[in-house]
Amino acid sequence: MGRFSGIVILLVYSSFLLAQKGTPKPDKIVRLDNTVIEGFVKEINSSYIHYNRLLDPNGQSLPVPVAEVWKIIWNNGEEEIINPKEQKAKVEASPLSVTDLLVKKESVLPQKFWMRKGAYWGARGGAGLTIPVKPVGSDLASEHAVAYQGGLAVGYRFRQSALQLDVLYTCQQFALTVPEEGFPEAMEPLKGIQNRLIVPLTFTRWFRINGITVGPLLGVYAGYSIGAGGTRVRNAGKPAVTYKNCSDCKDTAFGAVAGVSGTLVERSRFALVMDVKWYHGFGDNTGYRRAESSVAAHNALIGISLLHKFSN
Q1: Which of 11, 120, 175, 230 could form a disulfide with 242 if both were Cys (CB 3.0 to 4.6 A apart)?
Q2: Cα dist from 5 to 17, 150, 216, 275, 300, whole Å
Q3: Average pLDDT, the chain
Q4: How far is the C-alpha of 33 from the C-alpha of 21, rounded, in Å?
């Protein structure tokens, strides 16, 4: 749990530093004739690269035809080739006009994948903890157990944000406290396993902080119990036994999602994202009955997503 907590604190602290951020360096648009425009790149599409001027940083963006641009040098030093040149001599970064072209850098995402608008898809995997919602019945322990999940994601990128829908197969485990057969005073350690299809819809607001892309996320989710599930005896003195849940125990679950995401690798066509999410389940477990009821649970998960844009 120490490492898990450290990652959460690091990402949240990075988001907090946004308020302390000064004015970053500008991006550089290098034309095919080797002239350089320093400014704030707002958007890239198939025809134009839009940027803002210093004298009107919040106004209408100015277009530069994509066909006239050799490359973009982002403020973190990374270069993106737009139109390859036969001669790739070093270009001195001398602006055309400091008064007209130097712009104020705002709190937007200058990285390539999240800079562009458009749909994307990807895959996600994660692991963490399942924590039953309190209060719990006599058969269910309140202690946490291991959880893991995997699935697919689709989403849409805006200029500084993203809306994402996931479909995730989630294995939730939990501890049971059941009197041992023939010895009511002794508790037999059992492990419950519950499989759910969880579908969260989340909204992420992205920020660029000292070369790192991070952002808070919020959303809601719906879940549905799937598979046989079961409870497995963990008593070392007996062989392990799995009891299948009843066939009519499948149910729906609802909850809220909150967390922090950070982009680990970002290119023009894909991004590798790590997130820390808290799935807050609604309801409680006062009426839980072993092998007859589904468990209402919270989940704390760390996940990795590989996201890829649908098209150019």
Answers
A1: 230
A2: 18, 22, 16, 13, 11
A3: 77
A4: 34
